[in-house]
Amino acid sequence: MRYHHKKPDIYFSIYGERYICDHPVYSSCTLFKIGKKGLAVIQQRFDPEAKSTWWSELDPWLNDDLYLHPGFKKYFDKRAGERVDGLYPTVTVRQIMWALKMKPITRTRWETVFDRRNI
Question: Taking the model in full, what pTM does it have?
């Protein structure tokens, strides 16, 4: 039994698009859009040489797994919104995976979390 979401050997990334913006937390994200509403999803990265972290778009192998999940549309309708000042409502990959009751990706010790619902 798997306890964490694992990267498949073969994957396709059809849904979601990379979105560049001027957000205070990140500069690029994965944007899921349906009509005029959108939901930005971010994932934390780590640079071992500089020992620094940053937020950016999802690993491409996660896009379709999230979008094709049976609960995605309901979650999207609850959290997504129209663009305001070039920004869409944002969630972290962990927030959406927990909400959809998916097995999370493996957590590493350098990861941080947001203590609020809205980013």
Answer: 0.88
Parallel/antiparallel/unpaired status of strands 90-92 and 37-47 = parallel
Q: Choose among 39, 37, 19: nearest CA to 29.
A: 19
3-state secondary structure of 59: coil
Cross-strand pairs, 97: none
What's the rounded Cα separation, in Å, for the pair 53 and 3? 25
Return the structure tokens found at 101.
Answer: 């009751």
Q: How far apart are CA 10 and CA 26, in angstroms?
A: 28
Q: Residue 25: name the closest of 115, 109, 114, 98 by CA.
A: 114
- Does the pLDDT of residue 13 top 90, yes or no? no
Q: How confident is the model at residue 11 (pLDDT cuts 50, 70, 90)?
A: confident
- Closest listed residue to residue 20, CA positions, set 80, 88, 97, 67: 88
